[in-house]
Amino acid sequence: MTPFKNIIKKITLALALVLTSTEIVAEWTPLGESDKKGGYTVYADLASIRKASNRVKMWILLDYKNEQKAAGVNFLSEKIRREFDCEEEQMRTLAFSLFSWNMEKGDLIRSYSQPQRWEKIQPGSIDEIEWKEACKT
Predict the structure, then answer these.
(1) Mean pLDDT across 122-136
(2) pTM, to two decimals
(3) CATH classification of 25-135 is 3.50.50.60, yes or no?
């Protein structure tokens, strides 16, 4: 094989790997911590922020210190797609995924995509920190 063909083959292989990779790694920015549920840290993927009028969508990650149990499954992290209403000071969950390890690693345990009801932001809560981050743009 000529050196030129060898280079083309390597470039083609590298390009195929990039194009077929479906995992997009989020850059999680810590927003705060809570003692609820045994303790967890809240992160936001600021690059995922999408704004339309007075509403903002953003991915949030809850990274638990202790294993959580819900509906018969155990998990250590929860990735949540939230929608925030910046004028009405409310939010709702659009989708979520539960992972067996911290920082959305390990197995995907459960995934759900159904918009939930709007909830008012409670002053002094972790939700308020998320809402402020989402709506400051």
Answers:
(1) 95
(2) 0.79
(3) no
